[in-house]
Structure formats: C-alpha cells, structure tokens
Amino acid sequence: MVTIPLTVLAIGIGGAGSWAVHRAFRRGAPGDDVIRHGLNWLGAAAGVGLAPVLLAAAIGPVRMFGVMHYAYLVGTVSLPMLGVAVAVANLRRHRASPVGASPRLVPWLAALVLVLPAPVGFYATHIEPNWLRVDHLDVVLAGDRRGDDPVSVGVLADLQTNDVGAHEHEAVDRLLAAEPDVILIPGDLFHGDDDEYERELEAMQDLLGRLSAPHGVYMVQGDAETPGWWHRLLEGTEVVVLYDEVVDLEIGDRTVRIGGHALDHDSQAAGAVRADLLATPDPGAITLLMAHRPDTVLHLPEDSRVDLTVAGHTHGGQIVLPGFGPLVTLSDVPRDVARGGLNSVSGNRIYVSPGVGIERGDAPQVRLFNRPAVAILTLR
Q: Which 8-state DSSP code applies to residue 78?
C-alpha cells in the first residue's frame, strides 16, 4: 500500500529535476549550471514531497519506516532519472559542438554518479534479499562442560514473510540438510495484515510443519508475533514455544539447558529465566539463552555461566555501509554485534542472526551488503 504511491511520488520528483535540466539546456546554460538547476529542482520537489510523508507518519497511516522508504526511493529512482536527463543533455550538447571539440568530463562524471544508485537499488531490492547463505560457526565450550560429543544447533530467525515461497522453503531445506540436533527460532515468523495472514496460514503451517530435529524445535516470541496469530501458525507442527521457561535436554553425552523468554527482556519473568540458567548447579551442563532481541545479553553479568545467547531482531541492519556498519539496529547492543554473527559482549558470547526475511509494512524491503542467513552452530 505504501510502495506504489511513494514510487509515483519519487518519479514525479525525478521528473521535476529532469524538466529543470532540459529547460536549462534549452537556455544554453553551461554544463555545471544545467546540473545545478536539476539538483535544485529535485531538492525542492523532494522537500515538498516529504511533507505529506511526515504528516502520514505523524498521524499514523505510515510509520517512520515509511520516511526511510521515501528517502530510499528518492535515492534510487529520482536521482537516477536526473542522471539520465544530464547524460542526454551532455550528449546533445556534444553533438552540437564543433567537430574535434573535447567533451567535458565533469558533466559525464556527474551523470554517472547520479545514475549509479539505480543498479544498486535493483540489486538491493531484487537480488540480495533472496541470496541465502548458511553460516557454519564453531562455539568452543568451557573446559568443565561434561561430555565429548559436539552439539549442533540450527538457527532460523526472522522469516518475517507475508508470502510463503521458494525463499522460505530454501531456508528450511538448507537448515534441515545440515541435520542439527536441535533447532532454535528466535521469533518473527509472519509479518502481514489480517487478509495476508488468512491467505498464508495454511502455507505457513505446511512450512513450519517441515521443521524437525532429534531433540526438538524451540521458539520464542518476536515483535511480529501478534496475539492470537502465532499459535495458530504452529498448529500441527513440532515447534515448542518457550514462554519464560527452561528445558533440559540430553544430547549425546551432553546435558543442555535452553532458556527462552518472551519479548520483554526487561521483565521479571525474563530475569527469572536468566537467573535459572546462571544458577545451574551442574557445572558440566551447557546453557543456552534464546530471546528475540539481543539486548537480553546486556542483563548477564560479565563472563557469565551462560555459554551462548541466540537472538535475531536486527536483521543485521538490512543495509550495511562499508566502514560504518548497519544504518539502523533498533537495539542497544554494540553496532558490530547487531550486524550479526558470533560475537562477545562483556565476555558473554552471542550469536545474532541476520535473519531470513526483511522488514515489511512501510519499510523499504531491501538488503545491501547483508545477505539473509540460517545458521548451524556447533558447540564443542
């Protein structure tokens, strides 16, 4: 509902800049002035267009993600349109120049820079969100953990789909192909409206019904788990919801305790789950903490008894800038931790999944330098 009107608006903004370029060219303005006029008109049109988007965000029809979506489309649609207009003006001017006159380099470079976001946007929108990878990572256990058998943990986070298709089935296929001992799902299965939910309910049940592991499939609540929705998604599946509780498993010659809490990591119940794991009387047991938001690790004492925290939520930022990291994490953990992968916070190891899906609703549905992933974590 948001993408189409915002795209039309971005095309209109690009058209304003392109018209200014054409007008300046017809007046015989120098190449630099042609570019400047186009940018001025595009900037003015973008400012005018931003006003209704901000108003819609303020009164509720869209969230602030919609403002980000608008900015993304201005960058990947409006600016490239201006770049094409500049290139056409440069070409026409060059053809009208005396024979043997050398082309000016700066206008052509400007046109190239303005057009470049278009292929980047196409890649980020249509290619990378579906370019799934499998993270295989080793987690070295403390020396007093009893047993010799490795424990394989599959992680499937943030499916966050509103249309079950090949991408979601590939994620399940590749996870099951690794034959993990146990599967953890740190929340956010479905993200859509009521009509999409009813349409996709059976497909989601079929997808989740494929999940199976010798020692169980466990899930915690995520932001997208709307009351009354998510439990229906799990009907007929092997998925067990850990709602502020701890389960004890025997995997090979290992004892594994998995604690999972509901969405609010600040709650008393979440604190009780962490306290239960920290107070594990058996020094040989492996302890795992699962939550949707990685912020739960911030509540653990330094170098705590918990062997590994598993979380999702951040999607790795979805858009990652080289040298800076994720633009948005919606988490208080350090940026490099929210980026995803296996890290440490105050001596506590944490795996944050970049997720399988993307933020939907009003958000720009993109990934850049941040491929979706499932994970196989081997505890040794």
A: I
